[in-house]
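Below is a filled-in request sheet from our internal design queue. Each sheet records the structural input a requester submitted and the sequence that came back. We keep these sheets so that new team members can see what a complete request looks like end to end.

REQUESTER: design group, bay 2
PRIORITY: normal
MODE: inverse folding
CHAIN LENGTH: 248
BACKBONE (tokenized):
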């Protein structure tokens, strides 16, 4: 049975793309069939996978707007598949605003290919616009990467409000899988307090282990690689492998 997981947080810079890419590769290495969906017009996930968004002839924009089927746009890489993004995806958001049932565009597009995969991981845009709502509507579960600082913590409230709206109007079975602490510095009391508050105030599960802060995460995308390939023995790589094992 396919599990569709949206990786969402409207705050930018909290490692949504890194989480999607690294978990996807770890799951693929565990023998699972994985599709990554780049739902961000900035196309960071597409770039991180070693693809040039400017050189891609068809993208998720064409799928959502009905020009092409998902099967025609999916790119098969060595270990997993991707539905890539380009900057044109920003135009898809505008086009969807005028359409009836716009929240279901991604779910409908994925339906014909969904059963080919064990996991579909959706890298949502850093906003709570119609693209992110599409991602949440198409998903079974949500993972929330959280940088352990006050500003990122505040954004959880808005995201949970959006999740509740999605449950009410478009996807009643959507489940929050948990929070992943990213760029975590366990030496600081503030980081630990933020995680404790997330558990107590929102009742959200916090998945262990937290992902430690490391320059290796910044280096890897420039090589078109995951940290699992760039620095496989690093604490960050080991943390994501452990988190992927929990998903399994």
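RETURNED SEQUENCE:
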């Amino acid at each position: 049975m396919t599990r569709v997981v949206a990786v969402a947080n409207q705050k930018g810079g909290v490692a949504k793309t890194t989480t999607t890419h690294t978990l996807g590769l770890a799951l693929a290495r565990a023998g699972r069939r994985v599709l990554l969906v780049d739902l961000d017009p900035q196309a960071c996930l597409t770039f991180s996978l070693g693809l040039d968004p400017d050189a891609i002839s068809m993208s998720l924009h064409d799928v959502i707007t009905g020009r092409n089927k998902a099967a025609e746009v999916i790119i098969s890489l060595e270990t997993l598949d991707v539905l890539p993004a380009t900057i044109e995806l920003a135009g898809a958001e505008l086009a969807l605003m005028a359409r009836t049932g716009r929240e279901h565009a991604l779910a409908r597009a994925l339906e014909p290919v969904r059963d080919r995969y064990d996991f579909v991981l959706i890298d949502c845009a850093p906003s709570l616009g119609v693209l992110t709502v599409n991602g949440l509507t198409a998903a079974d579960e949500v993972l929330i990467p959280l940088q352990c600082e006050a500003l990122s913590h505040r954004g959880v409230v808005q995201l949970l409000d959006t999740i509740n709206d999605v449950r009410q109007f478009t996807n009643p079975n959507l489940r929050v899988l948990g929070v992943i602490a990213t760029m975590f510095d366990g030496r600081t009391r503030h980081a630990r307090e933020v995680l404790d508050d997330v558990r107590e105030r929102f009742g959200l599960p916090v998945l262990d282990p937290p992902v430690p802060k490391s320059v290796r995460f910044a280096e890897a995308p420039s090589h078109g690689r995951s940290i699992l390939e760039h620095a496989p023995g690093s604490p960050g790589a080991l943390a994501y492998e452990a988190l992927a094992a929990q998903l399994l």
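SHEET NOTES:
- The CA atoms of residues 137 and 171 lie 5 Å apart.
- Residues 3-247 form a domain with the Rossmann fold fold (CATH 3.40.50.300).
FILED BY: M.R.
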